[in-house]
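Long-time lurker, first post. I've been practising inverse folding by hand and with some scripts of my own, and I keep getting stuck on stretches where the structure tokens seem ambiguous. Below is the full token string for one chain I'm working on. Before anyone asks, I'm not after the true native sequence, just a reasonable design that respects the backbone. If someone could post their per-position residues I'd love to compare against what I wrote down in my notebook.
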């Protein structure tokens, strides 16, 4: 099956927001990728936030520990700068995003302690 071209997919490709991994999805189910892009693009078309803030949010999403998509981080940092964001604003966005990573430890360490107590395991890990 060949790739399906639509105005929305063409726009994503033109503006550099196309993720090449979507090519295979587009080949397998062009209706799905079109619906996904319409959903994903809704805040860009209709939202009340200035473009700078939308781009900062997209930097955070792409840099988040659950996503870690470097091409998206790069693209949205460039877009944020074009939209008037300062280096300090982008840095603060990244710093705020890094806080997400500590939540894994906040959740898991108490569970580790509880499970070790249940299993009768004690002691240190040897970490300094």
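-- Answer (accepted) --
I ran through it position by position. Result:
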């Amino acid at each position: 099956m060949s790739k399906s071209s639509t105005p929305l997919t063409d726009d994503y490709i033109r503006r550099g927001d196309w993720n090449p991994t979507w090519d295979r999805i587009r080949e397998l189910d062009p209706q799905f990728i079109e619906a996904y892009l319409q959903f994903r693009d809704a805040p860009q078309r209709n939202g009340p936030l200035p473009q700078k803030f939308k781009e900062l949010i997209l930097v955070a999403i792409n840099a988040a520990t659950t996503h870690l998509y470097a091409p998206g981080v790069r693209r949205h940092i460039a877009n944020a700068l074009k939209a008037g964001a300062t280096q300090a604003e982008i840095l603060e966005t990244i710093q705020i995003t890094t806080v997400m990573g500590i939540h894994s430890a906040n959740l898991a360490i108490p569970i580790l302690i509880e499970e070790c107590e249940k299993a009768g395991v004690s002691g240190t890990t040897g970490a300094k």
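A couple of notes from the structure itself: The mean pLDDT is 88. The chain has one domain: 7-119. Happy to go over any region you disagree with.
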